[in-house]
Amino acid sequence: MSASEWPLPPWVLLRVFLRSLFLQASWNPKGMQNLGLAYSVYPALAHLYPDGAAREEAVRRHLVFFNTHPYVAAAIVGGVVNHEVRIARGEETPDKVVAFKAALMGPLAALGDGFFWLSLKPAVGAVSAAMVPLLGVWAVPLFLVLYNLVHVLLRVRLYWLGLSLGDRLVEAVARANLPSRGAKLRAVAATSAGGLAAWLSVSFGTNAGGARAPFLAAGCLALGVASYVLVSRRVPNYVVLYLAAGLACAAGAFL
Questions:
Q1: Comparing C-alpha atoms, which of 109, 255, 249, 131 is closest to residue 193?
Q2: CA dihedral 128, 132, 138, 142 (to 10 degrees)
Q3: Which one-letter DSSP state was computed for residue 210?
């Protein structure tokens, strides 16, 4: 659907996107993000359905259970608007948009968790932490700028894909290959964390007279190798974290 075919003016589409940023503001145990979704798409529904009864029916079909990753939800919000335009034109029935949401919210939730929570945030956090020796407290705004720049731009992109492609957004998201990008980000996180650990080891060792620096550096390396082996053998992550915390406490007592 080209821009000239859209019955919705740009300011309505912008309002829908801005409202989607508050998707979880009305999270509830029963419908989870359903109120946030209905609130997000309401400007489009109000424009498409001037009749009060038709508008009420449109809002009600978006009050059913809905829950997905809050960032990738932008793709579903855009897709919902795409479907509602077709429903208002009589080109498809309302059950299509309900099925669209139900089919995508689970897979996109897993995709968003893997990329944003488990890859992007740790990578940006580790890079920012590694910059502390150079930037000091300015590493905090560096993290906020880098993380939000990536996540907001991806939200905009996903919203546009849903808006313009509808059901075909699945193919576009698959081509983006977020799992592969997430793996690269996790490598960046591991490298940055390793560099920071080495710097801390040398720094603490130097402050303690220099004799302990090699032992601390070797300990960080051994911990990294042990963690990799444990995770590769499917040892639960929380066990590895407890082990790392215990060794950190022991190192602190030693220092």
A1: 131
A2: -10
A3: S
The full DSSP string for 176-197 is: HTHHHHHHHHHHHHHHHHHHHH
CA atoms of 131 and 39, how far apart (whole Å): 40
In angstroms, the CA 73 to CA 112 distance is 9
Q: What is the pLDDT along the chain (255 residues), one digit of tens a residue?
A: 544 456 789 999 999 999 999 999 989 999 899 999 999 999 999 999 988 888 999 999 999 999 999 999 999 999 999 999 999 988 899 999 999 999 999 889 888 888 888 888 888 888 888 787 788 888 889 999 999 999 999 999 999 999 988 888 888 877 877 878 877 787 777 777 666 666 666 666 555 545 555 666 666 666 666 766 766 677 666 566 666 666 666 665 665
How far is 239 from 237, CA to CA, in rounded Å? 5
Exposure string over 222-248, b if 16+ CB within 10 A, otherwise e: ebeeebeeeeeeeeeeeebeeeeeeee
DSSP per-residue string spanning 63-112: SS-B---TTTHHHHHHHHHHHHHHHHHTSS-THHHHHHHHHHHHHHHHHH
Question: Considering only CA atoms, which of 156, 36, 57, 56 is closest in space to residue 105?
Answer: 36
Rounded to whole angstroms, how far apart are CA atoms 137 and 151?
23
pTM score, two decimals?
0.76
**Smallest Cα–Cα separation from 200: which of 225, 223, 217?**
217
Q: Return the structure tokens found at 246.
A: 């215990």
Q: Which residues contact 134 (CB under 8 A, 6 or more apart)?
A: none
